[in-house]
Prior knowledge:
The protein is of the alpha+beta class. The chain folds into 2 domains: 3-79, Ubiquitin-like (UB roll) (Roll); 88-153, [2Fe-2S]-binding domain (DNA polymerase, domain 1), CATH 1.10.150.120. The protein is built from 6 helices and 5 strands, in the order ββαβββααααα. Strand 1 and strand 2 (13-20) form a beta hairpin. The N and C termini lie far apart (66 Å). Residues 158-182 have low confidence and may be disordered. The chain binds FE2/S2 (inorganic) cluster (2 copies).
Amino acid sequence: MSTVPVSLTVNGERHELDVEARLLLVHLLRDRLGLTGTHVGCDTSNCGACTVHVDGEAVKSCTVLAAQADGTNVTTIEGLADGDKLHPLQQAFWNDHALQCGYCTPGMIMSAADLLARNPDPSEEEIRHGLEGNLCRCTGYHNIVKAVKSAATGQSGGTVEAPAPPEGARETAEAVAEGMKP
Ligand code: FES
Ligand code: FES
């Protein structure tokens, strides 16, 4: 098995690896680096589930050899948030219920991020055109387009609120804490 050395930066972290010459970038990310947020939907460059950014541009990582990514800067869905603060697109997808099974979501968000970097205020038609390489098998396109639009207009806001506890949970927790006092 012939291997080639690859040196690349992924989500700000430098990696030096020896990889099989035929290894695809998507498999390097998922299997060698454990970044499983990048999905494989088709492996034939049709679905967009594997979309990442290479040197700032959205690419389908199932169409790129790992060796071709030598010397590049790669960003995956795991690198989009700022610590605990979601990226505006992630927040917008949350707010607008722009996912069902979620399988297409990382690729959709990475493609949308590339679109907004090039066109910060796209029309609905431009969003649909920009995402045409990404397929959603749950056909949630309406809310996906809505989420991209709200991220573009700054309506998606900042961090995710912690979900409210179920009714009565606080009282129960307080009662338990009270009972544990010496
Ligand atoms: S897995 Fe790459 S386009 Fe479908
Ligand atoms: S949310 Fe299921 S494939 Fe898009």
